[in-house]
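Appendix B, record 7
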Amino acid sequence: MEIIFIKDKNIIEEHFRKNTELNIYSIGDLDDFFWERSKFYGIGSYESIEEIVLLYKGFDTPTFIALTDKRSDSMEELIKKIKPQLPVKFYTHLTPGLIRAFNEKGILENFGLHYKMSLIDRSLLMNEENENIRRLSSEDILQIKELFRRSYPDNFFDERMLDTGKYFGYFDKQQLIAIAGIHVYSERYRVAALGNITTDIAYRGRSIAQKLTSALCKDLLITVDNIGLNVFTENQAAINCYKKIGFEITGEYEEYLLG
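Structure tokens (predicted):
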């Protein structure tokens, strides 16, 4: 089958909307905010697309996303055919088993199995008003970076995302002690993917993350219909936190650094 470079957003969206919860990142990257950094490749024809993958070049190390909700020989064929066009080093999110399409010697790091979680029961979002929570901006960047350094040093933080206004912070007096934000947000496509969520180690166990993430979700639901997130399957504390405010596991994928 033919490999095609797809620039038609309507074709891409129609394909990924077959499973919005699995493909929130790819749908969100159709937004103009991300579009110039995104490349979509498909297998089949414009009249009949079998599978689509995404190469996102928004970071120094790009991310390659190849997810499917069915056993797909077409996806494996697509990956094998575009491998020569992939960067020298990149992160990848793959449906379990698709790593076989790559050379095992190219695995630089295996980050393990991750869950896709989606906000299903909105009634579980916490309702309380909290004077400790406020919207963050670029003026808070020094405190944001310091919090990540202390409690989440390996996260992926794109400072541009602060411009969306979809980052919330929890303060103790004037000190930022927790943060909840987004990796992807699109009002046009009405999707958001949460990210950069962490609480200072000294303040954990007080339900701060639940309160903060609930506040963020309520704000997002004004402009989006689908909210999702990715979480490591062994991070049980985070999984429990998200379940308490209405998130459910809706898929899974494997994450690697390849080179």
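Remarks on this record: The chain has two domains: 3-115, 119-251. Helices lie at 9-16, 24-28, 32-35, 73-82, 141-151, 208-220, 236-244.
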